[in-house]
Amino acid sequence: MMHNIGVISDTHHLLREPVKDLLRGCDAIVHAGDIGGQDIACELSSIAPFYAVCGNIDKDKPPLCPQSLSLELFGLKLFVIHQKNKIQQPISDKDIIIYGHSHKYEQTLQNGQIWLNPGSCGPKRFSLPVTMAVIHIDGKKHCEIERIDFLSPIKKAKPLAAKKDLRAIIINVMRDTDKGKSVAAIAKHNHISEELSTQICRLYLTHPGVTADGILTKMGLL
């Protein structure tokens, strides 16, 4: 059975209609802070089971939620905090670390853990996009993370010259992942974008036993 977790952050008093529409299709909602008010929290709670931490703009108001949160949803162990540099407790047993604050979408793989900042789906800030994420989980605890961009399309990486080249890169990425390298280091070593590195690493880690051809298939390239 498939489950979906909507992951949002930095709403800053604004809950957009497209965001609410998408969250209505989720089984749970996780908010990484800077909610903006009890009214936003109440509205999100009426959509689906709601889990949240306080952000820096929430700290001067009556406490809506804790500063950090550990929870397990649909077999995945999550740790949630607003600012990742304020993590003080052990998190080595967590599958996904969720944070916010920067308003910039980030998704990296570090030591087998997914670090996810869904960006901001509240007021648009400078030239930053308006984003959130959805974690799709199947019955075997495999998960895939979908980035949702509300105001502008995600730039696609330029296609590689041939599938055989990509197959060789995938094999190298799989080896680097087994060695515990970060997504950034893997991208640099294989001369690919961090976006592509993240996609390959995620497919490799969430589908145990998958081959390079299997990853190509899941990417729609074979």
Task: Write a structural description.
With 222 residues, this protein is α/β, with parallel strands linked by helices. It contains six helices and ten strands, in the order βαβαββββββββαααα. The protein has helices spanning 17-23, 38-47, 163-178, 183-190, 194-206, 212-218, and strands at residues 3-8, 28-31, 50-52, 68-73, 76-81, 96-98, 105-110, 113-118, 131-137, 143-149. The strands form two sheets. The chain has a five-stranded mixed beta sheet. Strand 4 (68-73) and strand 5 form a beta hairpin. Helix 4 (183-190) crosses helix 5 (194-206). The radius of gyration is 18 Å and the shape is globular.
Topology:
Layout: E1 3-8, H1 17-23, E2 28-31, H2 38-47, E3 50-52, E4 68-73, E5 76-81, E6 96-98, E7 105-110, E8 113-118, E9 131-137, E10 143-149, H3 163-178, H4 183-190, H5 194-206, H6 212-218
Parallel strand pairs: 1-2, 2-3, 5-6, 6-8
Antiparallel strand pairs: 1-9, 4-5, 7-8, 9-10
Counted by DSSP, the helix tally is: 6
Anisotropy-based shape: globular
Order of helices and strands: EHEHEEEEEEEEHHHH
Averaged pLDDT: 87
Structure classification: alpha/beta
- Main sheet characteristics: 5 strands, mixed
Global Rg:
18 Å
In short:
The chain has 222 residues and is of the alpha/beta class. Helices cover 27% and strands 24% of the residues. The radius of gyration is 18 Å and the shape is globular.
